[in-house]
């Protein structure tokens, strides 16, 4: 893959611009730079696959793009749409993983990997429970959406971890990195906006969001090269 394509350079510039402008509070620049992150990486993907796109990949990127644009408004009226588009994106990735996991021989799991998987599951479930329990209450109108969102995201990260444990490949490494970026992004977004507005938490959320585009697109590209994804 040729990294320094015009679209990829635009992705880097818009990502840096968005990060700095978000921390500095330049709202006009934020509203321009954030949509450019997703749109430039989408064009980068289309260019790299020579316009032979996987439409599920494109649907994922477009859904995640809409989520990011709507999230610029940062109000409760658009939050349900942000959560819905994110859940759609995560579900698409999750479906890829499930298809891949059906083709793996689970007898190859040793005790060390099994312990790693169990500890990861316990940690992520505990993290999701504490995030919901400490920050949101059942009286919150959005509580059901938050619970469903947490279930889908946790399932995505767990399944990515299990898949990586069972089958090492460059594509799955990118998938795992993307999944953890989503987790870090959403976790620190919630902490910053609903619990404690420490600027470092916002920085972690923003950087994870920007990097996630790179990792997931590389997962798609590597999957195409190695036939990782069952079309």
TrEMBL record:
Superkingdom to which the source organism belongs: Bacteria
Transmembrane segment boundaries: 53-73, 79-102, 114-136, 142-164, 171-193, 199-221
Presence of the UniProt keyword Repeat in the record: no
Keyword annotations: Membrane, Transmembrane, Transmembrane helix
Keyword set includes Zinc: no
Name recorded for this polypeptide: YhhN-like protein
Organism the protein comes from: Flavobacterium amnicola
Lineage per the UniProt record: Bacteria, Pseudomonadati, Bacteroidota, Flavobacteriia, Flavobacteriales
